[in-house]
Amino acid sequence: MSTMETHPFRHATAPHHEFGRPNFLRVLNSERIKLLSLLSTRILLLCAVALLVGFAALQAWGIGQVTTTVRQGGQAGPRAEALDTTSAVLHLPAGGVSFAQLIVGALAVLMISSEFTTGMSRATFAAVPKRWPVLTAKAVYAVVVGFVLTYVGAYIGGLVAQPILSNYSLHLDMASWDVQRFMLLNGVYVAAVALMGLSLGALLRNSAGAIVTLVALLFVLPIIFQLIPGDFFTEARKYLPTNAADAMFEAGTASSLQNAAYLEPWQGTLVLAAYVVVLLGAAYTTLQQRDV
């Protein structure tokens, strides 16, 4: 009889002990629900894709207009051909990345900062006391969203730009390795921006403050460093995230003038990676040490 009485208790508690544990797959699933359940998130992602496609189409029209002007001015030949073969057409599919990165970066900030502003962090970290799986799961989605959104948006933008360019006798080969390489590198860059935004959100725990800091790091500081004269600021500007990314994009294709203004491609890649590693490491450390 005692055996029959202990079985139901054992049955009731075993599933809770065995299957209620917050493993990493469960954390990933919960973060996916948090990320995609909000309509505002889906709208922001669609806006980022629309920006990439819209800027690609606009740049295609602009390049075509310039080409037409050159040809009508009697300067056809090498100069007109240069418009088709230089970085203008090559960089066209990812022309809207400068603006799309803001949306992705802000979304990455909100992925973690909203946990603290709404008080959801108490429930989240009560369910996952180790904390690091939560930030890791958010980082996984930040990388996936940043990379996939950028590549898909740039690819669609390139497809939209092709018929516009063909009207001006220009050609964009989306299967070309140079075009694919540039889109892939832009995807990596936006994924890095997403990780920096996520890290700043975890460090500052304030949405507005983290977004402003990210914008200052990506846009304001490069302008300030460019306006201030002096060798120090000229040299320091090379190590800002956007300039490091520009160096990474120009692997093997930069001119001597660009090489003087930027780091070597491998150096730019390492500098951008250093930003991500330092900020993300600081985010993990503070998340473990600070109260929620």
Task: Estimate nothing, just give the exact number of structural domains.
Answer: 1
Q: Give the strand content.
A: under 5%
Number of helices: 14
The span between the termini is 48 Å
Rg result: 24 Å
Largest sheet: none
Return the average pLDDT rounded to an integer: 84
Shape call: globular
Output the helix-strand order.
HHHHHHHHHHHHHH
Number of strands: 0
Helicity, in percent? over 70%
Poorly predicted spans:
1-18, 78-85
* Class from helix and strand fractions: mainly alpha
Describe this structure in words.
With 292 residues, the chain is an all-alpha fold. Helices cover 81% and strands 0% of the residues. It has one domain. The chain starts with a helix and ends with a helix. The model is unreliable at 1-18 and 78-85 (pLDDT under 50).
Give a short summary of the structure:
This protein is mostly helical and 292 residues long. The chain has one domain (28-289). It has helices at residues 2-19, 24-36, 39-72, 78-85, 87-90, 97-117, 120-127, 132-166, 177-204, 207-227, 231-236, 241-249, 256-261, 265-289.
